[in-house]
Amino acid sequence: MGLGLSWGEKRMGDLDKFKEYLELRYSPSTIRQYLWAYKSFNQDLTSQEGVDRFVIDKMRKRGNNPFYGGFLKAYIDCFNLSFHIQPSKKKLKKVIREYKFLTKRQVDQIIAGTTPYISLMVRLFFETGLRLRELIDAEWLNISPIDRSITGIGKNNVPFNVKYSYETSVLLEKYLDIEANRKDYPFHRKKNIVDHADSFHYYLKKECLALGFPGVHAHRFRHALGHHLRADKGFDLKQIQKKLRHSKLETTSIYTEATQKEVDDKIDKEVFE
What we know:
Layout: H1 7-23, H2 28-41, H3 48-59, H4 66-78, H5 104-113, H6 116-128, H7 132-136, E1 143-144, E2 149-153, E3 159-163, H8 166-177, H9 196-210, H10 219-231, H11 237-244, H12 249-252, H13 260-272
Antiparallel strand pairs: 1-2, 2-3
Helix pairs in contact: 1-2, 3-4, 5-6, 6-8, 6-10, 10-11
């Protein structure tokens, strides 16, 4: 008998090698999907011509489906194959995402209609532009109702010092005067909570949904602030970038895009009237 592996044994060995490669790089769900693709298509990927057909049939004809592209790249890298993926000659249109910003009026409705804790937090998120964990994990020593400021370390380990309004300062001082809130992290509500940010989000979404605002999360108030400063207050892009602490001006550019509703409202107010 020869010492060489049979075709079936070779395929099984390749499958094991591919599985080991995936386990070091991908999530369990992606591994399951890529293993399915391997079993379904590996016999077709033995030549550059086969790879080219796969690209056309599974990727190009399906809108450059990222699943098949990801699988093919992993397959080629795992076995160190000399095949290459032909780039698409068709230039895809850039998809422009239209953001649906909460208006100042909607934010005020949420502040007026939610429980005192959620209402206070919404005020702080909207007025400071802080990210979720920057505010939830704010420390007692870094909160100053007198200076109306919160300091801390934010994204990319960059320090921040943000201000909020006089009215919010009065409400925050009352909140901090409650004995149960006099602790290292005053916005952490209960001791047995594993993730205070997730807990806050749960109650925020629940209360906002009851008011008729589905899908509200803390970051939407940060977006609402950026939109309010640009659309209602006339801040320029550099000023908004400074307030929201964006490292790149292009990140702030989403607030320069006027929505169709803004245009219609402006025409109604300044043209038709």
